[in-house]
Amino acid sequence: MNQEEYRAFTATLQHTLERDPRVLGLMAVGSTACLSHQPDEWSDHDFWVIVEPGAEEWFHTHCEWLPDSEQIVLLFREPHGGFKTVYRSGHLLEFAVSDRRTLLQARINDYQMLIDRIGLTADVARMQGVTASESNSVPDDLCLLGQFITNLLVGVGRYRRGEYLSARQVITVVALHALLRLISRRVSPNTPAVLDNLDPYRRVELAYPEIGAEINQLLQLDLDQAALGLLGLADHLLQDRLVGYPAEAVEVVRRRIAIQGLPC
Fold this sequence. Notes:
The protein is an alpha+beta fold. It is 49% helix and 14% strand. Strands 3-4-5-2-1-6 form a 6-stranded mixed β-sheet.
């Protein structure tokens, strides 16, 4: 879907919902909001529809209010209550339909109110501020570093035991998640506006081209070597930027996971 088609889809959705008196609001989120980053050919549509109490079930069980609904090949409800839809073209929607009370429990970053009949704008701006505050406050940096180091240790141990799938998840997802959060807090990005405060994996290569390239190269190595490389990268980036940096602990873990052929 090119940008013209993408914007036309958004406009059709907005115009359809504007004609329904049960709809109280429509909030575009992520790339659909067209704020810090513009949609491209791979962007899905992310949005939240706010309806009158009691009207949620109709929107949950009908799809004709969605643009080009006859082209939908997959629509399902996720455990958290949101929906995903796939079109015959391969275009993806991720959306939620709820009343105002449920909306106010959400966490958001980029957003744009396309419909607001009940004064949601102030509430949503406050929610965005809370989301930003939460992402910067917990856990603290030393806790994140501890999570990163110990998960490398756990992951390499599982790798050495032959638990390869579990090891990959712990090293390349759990440990890396903590490292990326630390990098976003402690290392100045080339392009600050592109970072995502909800998902630290998003647009790393745009914010940190050299670091992103190095991480991607490390992730192509055997898992124990990838773990060593990630630990070395963290040591290089953080030892002079983090008060109370546990240099001895980093060295202990480095020596431990460098021992070949023994479970950690």
